[in-house]
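Sequence in, structure out.
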Amino acid sequence: MISQAFNIQHFVTNAAQSAIEKLFGTAVPGEQIQLQKTRKEFEGNITLVVFPLVKTSKKSPEETGNLLGQYLMDNVPEISAFNVVKGFLNLSLSNSFWLSFFSSALEESHFGYAAPDTKPRIMVEFASPNTNKPLHLGHCRNIFLGDSVSAIMKAVGHKVTRVQIINDRGIHICKSMVAWKQFGHGETPESAGTKGDKLVGKYYVIFDQEMKKQAAELVAKGVSEEEAKNQTPIMLEAQEMLRQWEARDEGVIVLWKTMNGWVYNGFDVTYHKMGVHFDKLYYESDTYLLGKKEVEDGLKSGVFFSKEDGSIWVDMTEDGLDQKALLRKDGTAMYITQDIGTAILRFKDYPDTISQVYTVGNEQEYHFKVLFTILKKLGFSQGENCYHLSYGMVELPEGKMKSREGTVVDADDLMDEMTNVAHEVSMEQGKMEGLPEEEKEELYHKIGMGALKYFLLKVDPRKNMVFNPKESIDFNGHTGPFIQYTYVRTQAVMRKANIEETVLEAMGATFSNVKDLVSKAELDLLVRIYEWPEVLDESAMTYNPMLISQYAYDLARDYNTFYQHSPILREENADLRSFRLAITYKTGVMIRQSMELLGVAMPDRM
């Protein structure tokens, strides 16, 4: 957080109120002082909107702005210049202000962060895979979004619990099981030499291929295409297996547990490679039963109603929504049912949770409006604060992906490819010359994963996007590797200077000696550092890591401009050299911390 002493909005509001009363003889309330960030095409750091003050001044907006600007510059030491554009007064802050602010920020190891665990608990759900296939590129966007939002919420002071609901039941799971029974010949991950999730995913694809082949035979006999898919022997067997699973048939349950176990082991390997973790796992096979009980209890209490066929519904027309079925006439659960059970179980497991954040694709927006409305009807006021972190589709340059046809980009393969691309690009540009082989391999992984995470997080989550692996590793573009390389540059300067961090933190006392020597590039960096707490807070309020990624890029770009125009180690003025080293040190810290909120690891050398 910015301390009150350096809160520009606060002191400019107070200074403007004092100036208006002095100049025009009338006191105005603080809410009448409208401030905004100065537009890039004009000089200034903060802009006072003059139009609301002309009734008080009884002068034109331009004259009012000039009178106020001159008074503030003459009487407020922090204001060094002003200009008026129509009804807008642009104010520039003095070098002394920025240097004093920087001296204060330098002393904070996590500048802009809130004290840990000072805000209520937020639960973030992400990943939430089906156990019939490996994780793919679409999951990567989901997982990196959820992981980043969890870190951002923690940075602003919330207790955070990372969870996932594992979708381990249903017809899609049975499809893989049936295909394995028919075509697997006892194959296991060990015998196949492959990860368990990939093995199970292979049989999900085989099921689809076999079903299409059988459907084509039925169509040739005059059956419609839609009917043919549901009448194929292999689909009928999958449907029967689902009924056996719900009846807890021992043989089906054993196979289900075995194949799911293979998938869980495969997921664990992938999550480890991604660098993400979860605090608690929930399983649909447990929570759908809890959901059924909550719905039945809600029917008894009058929250829900039953139709003549015995199905149970909720009426949300007064809430601007529709009627929604919760249990079918045969008593089986709908998709929404297990989400009701899961949400309520989580509130009971963590009673201090004020909100659950669901990282799920944008095609489910209506679903979550329904879920949150139902939670409120059941008496869980937290439903009002729950949030659907909606995100768009990820495509490749060549188009969409389809799981059942086996045309998705496997997450493990993608991460390996990113590491290989990092290797190729680094070799082409000579970035790793002189480093030991073992260190190079670790760096290739950090660069590849940094490129992947940053590229997926730099786009507003709500938008669809196209992922291009080669473009994501451009060391000179708007990419993770560009920011990583800038961070490495700051560390190289510090190593050459051979100065301990504790010494740098004590340098603030000397900054007043350079107030007349500060360049525009240096000033731009100080202003950028000042903006960090506001960016972090806005990112948390909007659940949007894109703001963090843009900030990290802007900070890295500003540092490179400074680096090119301002000698550091060759600077002869000792005070100026110390100041530039302090900027380098703090910029490096803030690049690292902002990128860590995106889940991106920073290498020390490249």
